[in-house]
Specification:
Elements (H helix, E strand, L loop, with lengths): L1 H16 L7 E2 L2 E2 L4 H10 L2 E3 L5 E3 L4 E8 L2 E11 L2 E10 L3 H19 L4 E5 L3 E8 L2 E8 L5 E8 L4
């Protein structure tokens, strides 16, 4: 009887663990989609390849692709991938003065807090350097502010490795 109970318990546990992996979303697009599909979608949205900042190893089918939008010199988008799987997407913002990046950091942080219904881990909260990390749905989002000589802010969307 014990063997039957353990067998049933094992099957239930196996079925529970074999579900689909969840991926975080980037602006409404699943990061679980193939890299080429995301790339095509971004090109249709008006992004262009920044050839000076790309590094793609076609033999390993991996790399880092940097995209920009015409007319938006203060914004860049980088996509890290391997084997047609998206590992990370990073938005980078460059501003002319510190208050603009502080306001942008706070608005993005508040928006993510509301969207994800989660409170971020904030290991660094100074006036000129701030970091907020949201862990959710198969990934992590980090919002980083660095107000140094050139004020910058970045938002990093990462997928976590399947355990």
């Amino acid at each position: 009887m014990k063997k039957v109970i353990y067998a049933v318990f094992g099957i239930v546990l196996l079925c529970a663990c074999s579900g689909e992996r969840e991926y975080p979303n980037y602006r409404g697009m699943s990061m679980g989609m193939p890299y080429k599909a995301l790339y095509d979608t971004l090109l249709m949205q008006g992004y262009q390849i920044d050839t000076a900042h790309c590094s793609i190893d076609s033999a390993a089918n991996a790399g880092l692709l940097t995209l920009v939008r015409e007319g938006q010199t203060n914004f860049g988008l980088s996509v890290k991938f391997h084997a047609d799987t998206i590992d990370a997407i990073q938005e980078s913002y460059i501003a002319t003065y510190n208050d603009s990046t502080r306001h942008l950091w706070q608005s993005i942080r508040d928006s993510l807090e509301k969207t994800l219904d989660a409170w971020p881990n904030a290991p660094l909260l100074k006036d000129d350097h701030k970091l907020a990390e949201f862990k959710y749905n198969g990934g992590k989002i980090s919002v980083l502010l660095e107000n140094t000589y050139t004020p910058t802010m970045s938002v990093l969307y990462e997928t976590t490795a399947q355990e």
